[in-house]
Amino acid sequence: MEMKSVKQVDEEAQARLEIWNYVFGFTPMAVMKCAIELRIADVLESHGGPMTLSQLSAALACSSSVLHRIMRYLTHRRIFRQMSASQESEISYVQTPLSRLLISNGGNSMAAFVLMESSPVMLAPWHKLSASALMNGTSAFEAAHGEHVWKYTAENPGHSKQFNDGVACHARLAMSTIVHQCPEAFNGIRSLVNVGGGDGTALHVLVKACPWIRGINFDLPHVVSVAPKCDGIEHVCGDMFELVPKADAAFLMWVLHDWSDDECIDILRKCREAIPEDRGKVIIAEAVMEDELGEDEDKYRDARLALDMVILTHTEKGKERSMREWEYVVNGAGFTRFTVKRIEDISVLHDWGNDECIDILRKCREAKVVHWIDEGEEDKYMDVRLALDMVMLAHTEKGTIEKWEYVVKANGFTRFTLHSETYPSHYISNRGPSMS
To answer: In this protein, which residues make up the domain named O-methyltransferase dimerisation (predicted)?
Structure first.
């Protein structure tokens, strides 16, 4: 067998580590969803200061051992912060700017958006992504649910509400950013139609900041019918492919990326017909795929590429567009000029509990691999280890090194040795009645 160089061994080890991270890539979203459903951020915010694990578990009516593992993962991901504890004191937790975005009803909350994107309805199409690539245009969403996303949403009120809440959550934050960073875009506008405006949340933010604007919230009937009333806003239902209400300006945010180039051109033509020829404007808020930038030059690149995969998975022909693709769409709709403003927005034994592990070890003293987690360790495998612990928490009924020491010694072993390898775990070796 040909001996591998140290460089080859290191490269292969790094590649395996990256695969492990991809395998458990769902974990941050899943555990964050869990935190929202448990209302961890809400309880910490209401408390107004650090909370110990026992205080938090009592307030949430949660198992302290399970909550400890969840909080260990969330603090590692910097969603919450763990306060240093002395030997006499208990671990405590505090909020971070990130965790405050998970408060259920906070003004800047993103909780509804997380819950929408992590819902079973929105996750199911990801399992059909490869099928959609082979089905000549059939979307992954349709492959999963039997109909396209807009029809499914219209026919399922529960999903429709969650979808609208998630969109409204994003709209509130994005519109606040747009108004703050691009106030000049709305100068001279007396009336504005928000095409595909959902429940009117974005328009509410706009008219509050620009009270001289009369807002028209335009969307499909099943969306507008449940939109709350708001001063300065008129809700109008209709189909943007047929007619857009008249106004000084048309505004579209995260709408055009759901549609093909030809469909976008049709929508923009309807918008052009709705605005005055001499002073009207169309304002588009969308991501731009800056293909010419290097990976290190754009901190939003990962999010944009991920968003394009979301659109690929959930729509029939939608996509995120590069500047050249946006120019094609805008010019195709008959607009001769446009300006662009950039904004800043955008393993065996781990399946069982301690007592069960002891029974297994008593029956099999040749156990070779045991995963454990060292809470104080800072290394490149920590993300994978903590994600693996969340997988076990989700998939099994019931470790740290102390837990494994308890399991091993309870079985009658008097000593053991821990070995580290280029694998996202450590293992305990056993060569007889005593582990060495």
So the answer is: 20-104
